[in-house]
Design goal:
This protein has 286 residues and is α/β, with parallel strands linked by helices. It is built from twelve helices and nine strands. Strand 5, helix 8 and strand 6 form a beta-alpha-beta unit.
Length: 286
């Protein structure tokens, strides 16, 4: 009974922190193909796990292990090179060993031969990348309850909130983004939103703020030192957007406005209450 209680607690804990992103497993030699697939999936609204952004301070094994275990989907680019890749084999074994909460495994059969993953759907690689990604999208939609809402803004103003943060705080942004997804709050984050090649990044963020109903600021020392971040909040205030300051580090908001709220996020034990408070103020601001 004690073992079952510990296991149940672990399952609940991991379900709470599940990020809902898509992890694409590939050999380094297949980076070009993997990048095209990631970009295409991201344009369809699937948040893609990034080693540099989501686990910058981890060792290779720990970074990829956490990426796999918190993924909603693991897409395996099945090539002969990947089958010889010892890290890839260990990651697949890790993904397939998870009880109850296994990520969805989808194998893209790029080359003939033995599969590295024994479970999950298998999709043949099409000559057209668009057809390949279309098949992936269809397979993932069949399990859409595992996938977060699209990362990109859609439709009329008021459909999503914008995250404002300094680049060194990308790990905190990922935590906020996926924590809010559990509450069905749609978030626009420049790091995972589909790119508009015709616009400068500052203009993309400004446009997202203009279409949003609120801006969430990840308040840290790095944010307070960033001219870009300060410019974003100036723009939000000029537009009269509702702002929530999520305090992850020392410091106070540089401006005091009656439409703004400061929510404490310092310390892991405050995260749950913090997300609940964010949801409360967003509902109250409608």
């Amino acid at each position: 009974h004690l073992f079952q209680a510990v296991l149940q607690n672990r399952v609940v804990k991991v379900q709470l922190i599940r990020h809902g992103w898509t992890y694409v497993l590939h050999d380094d030699a297949d980076l070009v193909m993997a990048t095209e697939i990631k970009l295409a999936l991201n344009r369809l609204g699937y948040p893609i796990w990034s080693r540099e952004r989501d686990a910058p301070d981890q060792t290779d094994w720990n970074a990829h292990r956490v990426g796999v275990e918190r993924a909603a989907f693991v897409v395996v680019l099945e090539t002969a090179r990947l089958r010889r890749n010892s890290l890839a084999r260990e990651l697949v074994k890790w993904a397939e060993s998870w009880p109850v909460i296994r990520p969805g495994m989808i194998t893209l059969k790029v080359e003939p031969g033995e599969r590295i993953a024994s479970s999950g759907s298998e999709i043949p690689m099409r000559r057209s990348l668009r057809l390949t990604v279309g098949s992936l999208h269809l397979a993932m939609q069949r399990r859409k309850h595992r996938v977060n809402p699209p990362a990109a803004p859609e439709g009329r103003r008021g459909r999503y909130v914008v995250l404002s943060y300094a680049s060194p705080d990308a790990d905190k942004a990922a935590e906020v983004r996926h924590g809010l997804a559990q509450l069905d709050i749609q978030v626009w984050d420049y790091a995972v939103a589909p790119r508009d090649a015709t616009m400068r990044f500052e203009d993309e963020i400004r446009t997202a703020i203009e279409r949003s109903r609120a801006v969430l600021i990840i308040l840290t020392a790095a944010w307070l030192k960033s001219e870009h971040c300060l410019g974003e909040i100036d723009h939000a205030n000029r537009l009269g957007r509702f702002c929530l300051w999520l305090r992850f580090g020392p410091g106070t908001p540089p401006i005091d406005h009656e439409q703004e709220r400061l929510i404490e996020f310092r310390g892991r034990n405050r995260r749950g209450n913090g997300f609940t408070e964010v949801a409360h103020w967003l509902r109250a601001s409608k």
